[in-house]
Write a structure and sequence with these properties.
heterotetramer, A: about 230 residues, alpha/beta, Glutaconate Coenzyme A-transferase, 8-stranded mixed sheet, 3-stranded antiparallel sheet, disordered N terminus, B: about 220 residues, 3-stranded mixed sheet, 13 strands, about 30% strand
Chain lengths: ~230, ~220, ~230, ~220
């Protein structure tokens, strides 16, 4: 990775393959995207071609069978999932029922708030969502001002793979329409944040008022295939 | 048992809910779930209704016309949509902040069952084939008004308005209104009240297709269809 | 206020005086700004000229004696304060010591997170700030992963007076440099949100990717003096 | 007792801390408190240091030149500042998210007292004249490294490095480094260790002006001034 050190900015720019080499077996990996919008496709593709395994994947969904993130499951690279909606990929329920993987379901709002919490140093918070349902079983219920809430703990990751529209060379990011979704939140919540972008511009080329993810959250920038 | 064919029933339900929104005299923000709820948008009139999608957009426009779809511009049902003037984008934490924080005036959701006290079961049928919850639990607990859009009975004629939910619940006592092809119910002081009845239906018919006990509003109306 | 109903958009636009009439005695009022940046000056000025009293003011600071928000205290309109830094206005400590007003101090990060919490429907959260200090006395301390945290409850208001740079007629807002500070967060956390802006533009004139406060948070827009 | 005049002492402290940052081989994000900490920015060299201000800015530039001040562009000490290329703005909740979430590499703060176990007292002298805490409690608990910049003694020569803080604390065991005009200390395994000593000072002098017990590093250096 010596070569990139002389690149513009602070040398956060890497190739997709270089970036994926930073991921180790057994990692907890957050992956941005909702349905097919805002997925870091190139990073996901490279991850499915790598030999990395025993992964915990923290994501909204898991694509479809043998497609996108779903490929990780098909390949047997997944140990467990933390997420929200796997109905688009029936292989998830099957693998879970067969005891092949562990799955922790969180309501979508709790899921993203728990990720934000990890990013901003909040270890736990109370939310009304899931009170009285199966998903709050064995969790602490507490009343504030006469209403019941469930205690949810922060969800942190070793690595976040996110998708943005443009980065400047410092790592400031902007997004594109509903491809934003979980990406800015996950960018705050992992030890190593790898952002796949369509375009890399010079510092100062993004409007300081419109930058969504400030560069201090981003460790590595890769240019996607598009 | 299906007095109204399913496709027609769904349209009727969507239209009835759309009318409620179209009649609003003030600006309202709504969130639409997958299925019948999504169809509601097609029938809303007037400029006072603004649609939020929990994947991060306010001011969601109609579904994108053929050939104009942008894979990166979708609603929460993964349909390609369009922009409206003054729309904006935000991340999922802000989106659910809007929902959980009570900033959404109404959410329309589908359901498998609604109990007589307003419990809603809509996220899973425990047959091991599905694993997913979505934003439904956040929506039913956070939106100011929760409107359930569902056919009155299952395909084999079993009541969906039940004494107690037999399926895993999404929220306890969260339903405010239920619209079926045969009737409109509201929850008032924890009790289910029949407000409107379809032209084809008699009160006896509604009673026979509804397991949950309900009151009949003194001002019971015929549902406009 | 009939006249404004025919204005563009949904009729959120009011005069400063009309807006202030919406505020009642005894209200809990959030006010944006940090030092002299990002204060809703015209709204503050009108509030100090009104007869509204017994107010709880929730703000970072309280201006200076007889200046800005400080005037509310000089005028005797304040019942209590929830905030963070009153060193710039020695009248606050004096009034507190004399038992004239109540003051609840929160660390700045806790203060803003508690406001956000109210805005997003989180009744309480844990934070490491203030553990072991006077400011966490009589608050619940709890350990997560071996570290102590203090439980802090959400801070909600009846009214928020905020300052933005531009609004569109729907109420979407953008801000200007460090005048942003507490304003977007307070915009989420009050029953009635009044935004003072330098300019009002038509819907569609603000870039949808750059809108910081979506219009659903804003109830009333007033054009500031400037 | 004041071996170094106060103004000169402050510059020396600021320069020493600035040198630490200037020597960083990787990009670092720092937050500077009011007083001596703010002066640190004036002496930082090289392009690896990026300043965050907790009122909502990353990439804070130098103080605005006379006549160029923008009241709406300030740092947390309310000084008008300038932009740097690639700077950005955000709201206070994100700003303190950066701080609390461990995304700030170092914070430099002033203090009234630091105890031998790294407790810091810097927010209030209980005389009833001040009521304010600022962001100090969030900063000392959240930043990866907490560097205290303070004169070695009070104006009347009393030690500020004490056995136990007599003033209300800002955080417990949070100090990582203390830089005075006479010495540099680091906290290692909960113990205060003298790392550098000013050219004018002897170890005896430091001991006489420091109430807190401290170890002397085997590799004790002369402070570059």
């Amino acid at each position: 990775m010596e070569a990139s050190k002389n690149m513009i900015g602070n040398g956060k720019i890497r190739s997709v393959d270089e970036a994926i080499l930073l991921i180790k077996d057994g990692s907890r990996i957050m992956v941005g995207g909702f349905g097919l919008a805002g997925n870091p496709d190139c990073l996901i593709d490279a991850l499915t071609k790598s030999s990395v395994r025993d992964l915990t994947i923290i994501s909204n969904d898991l694509g479809a069978p043998n497609t996108g993130l779903g490929k990780l499951l098909t390949n047997g690279q997944v140990k467990s999932l933390i997420g929200n909606y796997y109905n688009w990929n029936p292989e998830v329920a099957k693998a879970y029922n067969e005891g092949v993987i562990d799955v922790k379901l969180l309501p979508q709002g709790t899921f993203v708030e728990a990720i934000r919490a990890a990013g901003v140093g909040i270890p736990a918070f109370y939310t009304p969502a899931s009170v009285g349902t199966e998903l709050s079983k064995n969790k602490e219920i507490r009343s504030f001002n006469g209403r019941d809430y469930v205690l949810e703990e922060a969800v942190h990751a070793d690595v976040a793979l996110i998708k943005a529209y443009k980065a400047d060379a410092l790592g400031n990011l902007i997004y594109y329409k509903t491809a934003r979704n979980f990406n800015p939140v996950m960018a705050m919540a992992a030890d190593l944040v790898i952002a796949e972008v369509d375009e890399i511009v010079a510092p100062g080329d993004l409007d300081p008022e419109c930058i969504i993810t400030p560069h201090l959250f981003v460790d590595v920038i890769v240019k996607g295939g598009k | 048992m299906n007095i109204i064919p399913e496709a027609e029933a769904k349209i009727r339900i969507a239209k009835r809910i759309a009318r409620k929104f179209s009649e609003s005299s003030k600006k309202i923000i709504i969130n639409l779930g997958v299925g019948i709820p999504t169809m509601v948008a097609d029938y809303i009139e007037g400029g006072n209704v603004c649609v939020q999608a929990e994947n991060g957009m306010l001011g969601v426009g109609p579904v994108a016309p053929e050939g104009m779809a942008d894979r990166q511009l979708i609603n929460a049902g993964r349909q390609p949509v369009t922009e409206t003037r003054g729309c904006c984008y935000f991340d999922s934490s802000i989106s659910f902040g809007m929902i959980r924080g009570g900033h959404i005036d109404a959410t329309v959701i589908g359901a498998f069952e609604v109990s007589k006290t307003g419990d809603i079961a809509n996220w899973v049928i425990p047959n091991g084939k599905q694993l997913g919850v979505g934003g439904a639990m956040d929506l039913v607990s956070g939106a100011k008004e929760v409107i359930v859009a569902m056919t009155h009975t299952t395909k084999d004629g079993k009541p969906k308005l039940v004494k107690n939910c037999s399926l895993p619940v999404t929220g306890i006592g969260e339903a405010d209104m239920v619209v079926t092809e045969l009737a409109v119910f509201c929850f008032e002081d924890g009790e289910m009240v029949l407000k409107e009845i379809a032209p084809e239906a008699s009160l006896d018919l509604i009673r026979s297709l509804t397991e949950a006990e309900f009151k009949v509003d003194a001002n019971l109306k015929t549902m406009e269809v």
